UniProtKB/TrEMBL annotation:
Cellular compartments per GO CC: cytosol
GO biological process: amino acid biosynthetic process; aromatic amino acid family biosynthetic process; chorismate biosynthetic process
Keyword Manganese recorded: no
Organism, scientific name: Pelomonas aquatica
Listed name of the protein: Shikimate kinase
């Protein structure tokens, strides 16, 4: 049963898609808090299932095996009873099956960020394998051009997240969901202070 927070929604789940480092987890946690539902990170759920880090699994078993597990986890999460906000991995949209599952089984918000803004935000991040290359900006541009059409195909709504704070992005998401009649504004918690992405 859909909770009172999410009214007339086709699904109990609000899913966030977008580029790695685009703010899905940070925004997702705040959005979930605002509407009073649990936050779930699909990458965290995958690591629980495989009993280790995604990076190690990727290195040992390859992308295809990882994407198989990612699809299984996304499908299982979308079938769970109850409302939640779901942050997906940046590459989840690469599989058509995942795009179909997300689009049909959740309200999908695409947090769109340009490669240049992502580079400014992540240039000192040493934990992301995709940035540990000779030209990280070129890599981000390549990923963006490959994935942006897929994110758009999967999404119900696109939120431009170039440089706003987490607070601003959460408010944009809430406003979009309210305008679409998917969220009861009287149930939304008081907004939090600004926090940069």
């Amino acid at each position: 049963m859909v909770s009172p927070q999410i009214a007339r929604a086709p699904s109990n789940v609000i899913a966030l898609v977008g580029m790695p480092g685009g703010g899905k987890s940070t925004v997702g946690k705040q959005l979930a808090r605002q509407i009073g539902v649990p936050f779930v990170d699909s990458d965290h759920e995958i690591e629980q299932r495989i009993g280790g880090s995604i990076r190690q699994f990727f290195d040992q078993h390859g992308e295809e095996a990882f994407r198989d597990i990612e699809s299984e986890v996304i499908e299982a999460l979308l079938k769970r009873p109850g409302d939640c906000v779901l942050a997906t991995g940046g590459g989840a949209v690469l599989r058509e099956r995942n795009r179909e599952l997300l689009h049909a089984g959740s309200i999908v918000l695409y947090l769109r960020t340009t490669p240049e803004d992502l580079f400014r935000r992540l240039r000192h991040d040493t934990t992301r394998p995709l940035l540990q290359v000779r030209d990280p900006l070129a890599r981000l541009r390549e990923l963006y051009h490959q994935r942006d059409p897929l994110y758009r195909r999967c999404a119900h709504y696109v939120l431009e997240s170039a440089r706003p704070s987490v607070h601003a992005l959460v408010n944009m998401a809430l406003m979009q969901l309210e305008l679409a009649g998917l969220l009861d504004p009287s149930r939304v918690a008081a907004t939090v202070g600004a926090e940069p992405l």
